[in-house]
Amino acid sequence: MKLYYFPGACPLVTHIVLEWIGKPYDTQRLTREETKEPAYLALNPEGLVPTLVDGDFVLTQSAAILEYLAELNPQAELLGDDPVSRAETRRWLSFCNSDMHRTFGLIFGASKFSDGNEAAAQTLSAKATDMLRSFFAIANDRLRGRDWLTGQRSVADPYLYVLLRWAHAKEVPVDDFAELTRFYARMERDPGVQAALRAQGLA
Fold first, then answer.
1. Is 112 exposed, middle or buried (0-12, 13-18, 19+ CB in 10 A)?
2. Residue 90 sits in the same domain as residue 49
C-alpha cells in the first residue's frame, strides 16, 4: 500500500489513519510539478493528492480513501460498528471534507478564483474565513463533553485536526474555541499523529 502526498496537505489525514491502523505502508512525496507528469496522471487524472495504491487498486479522493482504509481494517474501529455510528462518522467526515475543506479552497485559491484581482481576492478570503468560523463553531459545540467527533475515535478526527492546522497557518481565528483547542492539543500528543508529522517533515 502506497500513499502519494504533499506535506501538510489533505493526505496528512490518510497518513495519520495509516499510522493508527499500524500496518506496513509506503509513501511518495510529490511536488506540484510531478503531479502533472504523465506517470502520475495515469494514476490520478486530476493531478491532485492524495492517491492510494493498494496492489492493482488505485483510489483517489480523501473521503473514499479514508472509508476504504477503515473498512479494510475493522480492528482499528475507525468507522463505527453499527449503522448509526457509521452514519455519524460519515456525517462528520462529510462535514470536514465537503463543507470545511471546500471553503478552505477559497482561501488557498483566492487569487486564482478572483482572476488576479487583489481586492476581490481579499474579499473572497474574508468571506471564506467568516464561513469557516461558523463551521468551527459547530465542531466546537459538538466536542463539548466528547473527546472525539462521534464519541469514539474515527477517520473524521484527523481530518478536523488537519483543518485546524490550516486555520493556524492561514490565520483563521480559532483560539477562542476552547473545545477545539483541547482537541488539537490532544491530537498533537498522539503518537500516530506525531509519526505522520515527522514522516512529512512537519515536526
1. exposed
2. no
Burial of 54 (0-12, 13-18, 19+ CB in 10 A): middle
The grid coordinates listed for 11 are 493526505
- C-alpha distances (whole Å) from 87 to each of 22, 23, 83, 92 are 24, 26, 6, 9
Q: Are 68 and 94 members of one domain?
A: no
pLDDT at position 84? 97
pLDDT at 166: 98
Question: Would you state the pLDDT for residue 116?
Answer: 86
pLDDT of residue 1: 97
23: left (phi over 0), alpha (psi -120 to 50) or beta: beta
Q: Which helix (H) or strand (E) holds 84?
A: helix 83-94
Shared-domain flag, residues 109 and 175: yes
- Structural domain for 18, as ranges: 2-76+195-199
In which residue ranges of the chain is pLDDT below 70? Answer: none
CB 35 within 8 A of CB 47: yes
